[in-house]
Amino acid sequence: MARYYFDLRDVEDFVLDEHGTELRDLSAVRNEAARTLSGLAWDAMRKDTQVQQMSIEVRDCVGPVLEVKLAFVISCKL
Question: I need a surface site. Which of 13, 17, 29, 32 has the fewest CB within 10 A?
């Protein structure tokens, strides 16, 4: 298994993953990135954020492996 680092980026912040997570393959990396990003989106929606852009940049000991991006807009019609 290899160690992957999931760095988080949004409009305001960048959080560097200093510990990493051991995963078996790229499919597991994609699943973990998608699961983490969906959790971040859920948290942003609960905070009543209107516009949000966020991404997870995954790297291993050699360099970049994968980037997953999400952008959404919440508009209330009431």
Answer: 13
User: Could you report how far apart the first and last alpha carbons of the chain are, in Å?
Assistant: 50
pLDDT per position as a tens digit, 19-74? 999 999 999 999 999 999 999 888 877 776 665 789 999 999 999 999 999 988 77
Which sign, positive or negative, has the C-alpha torsion 40, 45, 48, 49?
positive
Backbone angles phi, psi at 65, to 5 degrees: -120, -45
- Tell me if 1 sits within 8 A of 22, measured CB to CB: yes
Output the DSSP codes for 13-50: -EE--SS-EEESSHHHHHHHHHHHHHHHHHHHHHTT-S
